[in-house]
Write a structure and sequence with these properties.
418 residues; mainly alpha; 3-stranded antiparallel β-sheet; 16 helices; 9 strands
């Protein structure tokens, strides 16, 4: 006789029907996962949408235990400004337990929050978001991090997705209406007014720092790219602005943009802003703001149309960064091409074309930043290097479009990358 887990797994009505018949949709995430393990089922087989991937037991248990031991070691408290450190009203999460990177960082915190929510630490995830709201209230936008020297740039705009993930856990409409929605409007306005191009798409850039800082950034870029640093400030400034854009992109440095990152409309940025527009449409619907809901929908539809027109490369079958200064697309295929899938903005047909190119990035221990090709400069965000955030983006992009086996395959590689 088959056990209950085998019976549930064979249910022809699919994962959602399995969850309904078991009453799982009424349970928080952790009890759902415990029940899945007891039944010998994967989270995919039970349709647990926000679950971490099902990994080999030894690897996943070791990783989960390590994370559980160290969560508290990543939390800092600094309610007052201290030198270059910008004080935050609530405890905040850092990417490292010691050494460098002891600040709250913009896009790092999205991935940290996903781990916190999966671990049941909703309060700390909320603290991180509230700290970001504070920075937006104080500066009008979310900086790279809570240091004064980060006030010259932002980072990939994941905040609306952080809010949505948290709201789906708490269902706190009062918070969404009074706190989150206004802060996100302000954050969107920053990207709209400071980073929008004439073609309607957006770019990475920076808030012009003083001349000394700009020259220092220019020298840093030249050093990383192995270039002789110009003596003339006028020749050094463009390199400084490129370094600002690279730092804002999070891909500092990469052959995707070379030394002219400020001249591209990147795939990942525009996909994230599309996701923000769709999230804002959804928030407006939850709050009964029908007129605003329609406006957000129009913005997202416009951006998607422009991305399909300017960023889609039909010969390769993928989204590519668009160099707006001369109207050419980058020829380099990178993991950024999966952001439109992560954002849910491309058709199933185009998603299939992008997924077909995954072997160009797939490595024994996960996904590389970009394909192996001539002209790469051996930078941090080049082949064969891979970063944890990109593994997550690719895995969730694959899951979103139904490529569950591919997602599982990539996820199982990651714990082995030590």
């Amino acid at each position: 006789m088959r056990n209950f887990g085998e019976t549930i797994k064979s249910n022809p009505r699919g994962a959602n029907a399995r969850r309904r018949c078991m009453g799982l949709q009424e349970l928080p995430l952790e009890p759902q996962l415990r029940l899945a393990r007891q039944l010998g089922l994967t989270s995919l087989e039970l349709g647990i949408a926000n679950a971490p991937m099902d990994l080999p037991a030894d690897a996943s248990e070791e990783a989960i235990a390590y994370i559980a031991r160290n969560w508290s070691s990543t939390v800092r408290s600094a309610p007052e400004d201290q030198g270059t450190l910008i004080g935050l009203p609530r405890p905040y999460s850092t990417p490292s337990i010691s050494g460098v990177f002891q600040e709250l960082y913009y896009w790092d915190t999205y991935f940290i929050n996903m781990g916190l929510l999966a671990s049941g630490q909703t309060e700390q995830a909320a603290n991180n978001i509230e700290n970001m709201f504070y920075l937006i209230d104080r500066f009008g936008w979310m900086p790279n991090g809570n240091r004064t020297f980060y006030l010259c740039r932002s980072q990939p705009p994941f905040l609306s997705q952080m809010v949505r993930e948290l709201f789906e856990h708490t269902q706190d409409r009062a918070w969404l209406h009074a706190r989150a929605y206004p802060a996100l409007q302000q954050e969107y306005w920053f990207w709209h007014t400071h980073r929008t191009l004439e073609n309607g798409l957006s770019r990475y850039g920076g808030e012009d720092p003083d001349d000394t800082t700009l020259r220092e950034l220019g020298r840093s870029l030249c050093e990383r790219f192995g270039l002789a640093s110009p003596e003339s400030p006028e020749q050094l400034y463009p390199y400084g602005r490129a370094m600002l854009a690279l730092a804002e992109s999070g891909w500092d440095c990469t052959s995707r943009f070379g030394t002219e990152a400020q001249l591209y409309a990147p795939v990942d940025l525009n996909a994230l802003l599309y996701r923000m527009e769709r999230n804002m449409e959804w928030f407006a619907g939850v709050l009964g703001l029908d007129a605003e809901r329609s406006q957000w929908r129009s913005r997202s539809e416009f951006r998607r149309a422009r991305m399909d027109e300017l960023l889609w490369e039909p010969e390769r079958g993928c989204y590519c960064d668009y160099r707006f200064s001369d109207g050419h697309r980058s020829a380099l295929f990178s993991a950024a091409a999966f952001y439109p899938l992560f954002a849910g903005m491309c058709s199933p047909e185009r998603a299939a074309q992008v997924v077909s190119m995954l072997p160009l990035l797939e490595m024994p221990y996960g996904v590389a930043c970009c394909e192996k090709t001539g002209g790469l400069l051996g930078l941090q965000w080049d082949y064969p290097n891979g970063w944890a955030c990109l593994q997550y983006i690719v895995v969730m992009a694959l899951r979103r479009y139904g490529y569950k086996r591919g997602a599982q395959r990539i996820a199982e590689k990651i714990p082995r990358a030590r």
